[in-house]
Amino acid sequence: MFDTTECPYCEYENDMSDALSDGLSSDNTFDWECENCEEEFEVFVEFDPVYYPSKIVYEKCQKCGTTTRDICEKGRIFPYPAHYKETKICRPCFHKGYLEELEMEEKSHV
Ligand SMILES: [Zn+2]
Ligand SMILES: [Zn+2]
Question: Is there a single domain that holds both residue 12 and residue 37?
Fold first, then answer.
């Protein structure tokens, strides 16, 4: 990711960190006014693909015992069913717990 780009007219290093907040046109370019000489120039943005590797970890659901790589861990997924004392559960158990919690909430409001 770039942070500055050089003005083609005066070679002033323009801070680009806010440049992308407005979004880019479909051809990945935007016009920028030089902070120094106030000439407008076009900036082409090249996006490099970024890969975020993470290990595949199979873990056991503490509730039903299923081994899954899609484990829901307390503190990392919200809203975690508060009535579960288990901290790592599979996704079906997570959904079940979530629904149970909704039901409990409904009852408590009656
Ligand atoms: Zn300039
Ligand atoms: Zn489970």
Answer: yes
Q: Which helix (H) or strand (E) holds 94?
A: helix 91-109
- Global pTM value: 0.51
Q: Which domain holds residue 32?
A: 4-44
36 C-alpha to center of ligand 1: Å? 5
Ligand nearest to the CA of 7: 1
pLDDT tens for the 110 residues of the chain, in order: 558 899 999 999 999 887 776 667 778 888 899 999 999 999 888 777 888 887 888 999 999 999 999 999 999 998 999 999 999 999 999 999 999 999 998 888 76
Tell me, in angstroms, the distance from the centre of ligand 1 to residue 34's CA: 5
- Centroid of ligand 1 to alpha carbon of 103 (angstroms): 62
Buried b (16+ CB within 10 A) or exposed e, 31-64: ebebeeeeeeeebebeeeeeeeeeeeeebebbbe
**28 part of a folded domain:** yes
